[in-house]
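Lab notebook: predicted structure, single chain.

Context: the supervisor wants predicted structures on file for every construct in the current expression panel, including those that have not yet been purified. This is the next one on the list. No modifications to the sequence; it matches the entry in the shared construct table.
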Amino acid sequence: MLMTKHCSIRNIALLASLLAAIQPLTAQSASESDRLEKLERAVEQLQKRNTELEAEVSSLKKQQAAVVPEGKMKTKIISEGKTYVEKVVEEKPPIYVQQRGSEIKLVLGGFIQVNFEDSDAFAFNGNFGQSAIKDRFRLRRARVNLTGDFAEQFDFKVEGDFGQNDGTNNNRTAFSSTDIWLNWHQFPGAQIKIGQYKAPFGLDQLTPDTSLYTIERTLPTGAITPDRQIGAQLWGKPFTNIWPRQKDLLTYYAGIFNGNGKNTTVNDNNNFMYVGRLESTLFKDVFGKGSFLKLAADVLNSRDDKGTSISQSGNLLVNSDGSLSPFVLPGADERTAWSVDAWVKLGPFDLIGEYLQEHVNGRTVDGVPPGFADFTTDGYYVTAGYFLIPKKLQVVVQWQDLNPGQKGNDGLYSILGGLNYYIHGDDLKLMVNYIHTWSDFRQANPEFGQDEFDQVLGRIQVMF
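Prediction complete. Output recorded below exactly as produced.
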């Protein structure tokens, strides 16, 4: 810009000089040849000056090319006072992602949870004796998800986990899907959700992994709740439009699922799992901002074939030494489960409790007996949390109990104490739990070894 202005001024001055030289020629009575001679000299001067200006412009361009724009280089001064210039760092254009469809909202997120598990690791879950787990660091969850909304009243979620079992080796992880669903929400009181997600059963199971007050879910939850399934459900909040301030007063869920777990392409038979849940949130903000009382109840029924796991997120089968492992049916069954739960929140204090029960009855199919005796499993937990430092440091205590109901005196119960440090809410959180576990079966049968176990669990969580 400066070069252009400089050249323009020079040209205007030169033309003014030329005109000044020409005007006297017209005013004088000199001969035509004199006027032509003077004009030729003026033209020669103009051409010469033009050549000089072109050379000057070329020189200035070369100097400018050698100068790096501000912010694209760094100059350092060494001890002797000399300077040198670092290499140029090119500025890159910003990268952005453009959705292909008609989404009005598209959000990319995820989280990472890394555990440290020491002493009698996961003994509270029945992992001792023949199912014992060694001390370890563990990539518990590493998930990436994409959520969005369509203008046509649909929302969706696609999520996968790098920390899951790869299906070929229990000691190896691989990427597989967790949640993949579509939800039609035009009518808040009657929404339709279809895909793979958690069946609506159990407060502990339905609480997001990143929001739990303890590092792991309880043993009753893992033994009885159905976890993620493939299916469809009708659900909604009937008071959303007629009483917006109390829209959470009632929430219902009614779902139908394959019943044989996640990431499967076939159903185990021609029957389905039926699940229902009712929730009611009362006294919202009545006893202070954020306070509430939540009450809920669930029911489940499923008819399963041989080879189906009925403890898809935990352990249920009682082994010969009193330890537990996942329960894979040796024959067909029909199971019916129910649960009730409550959550009270008052300022920095939380009290959460849940009771669950499941009846598992064998079925004879095509003359083939089930291969196991009928049994009833039940369990409960009570969790209390209190913020010693508001929104920063939380102390947690928990009692949990499971009666698998398959052998005499096969109960397991544990007490937990923990601390949660919220560096940046749930987005960046440190957790530590100490758990002491008792085994009724081991106490009644001392020949199998110790009947009490101690565990220390630690976790760091990052959400993005």
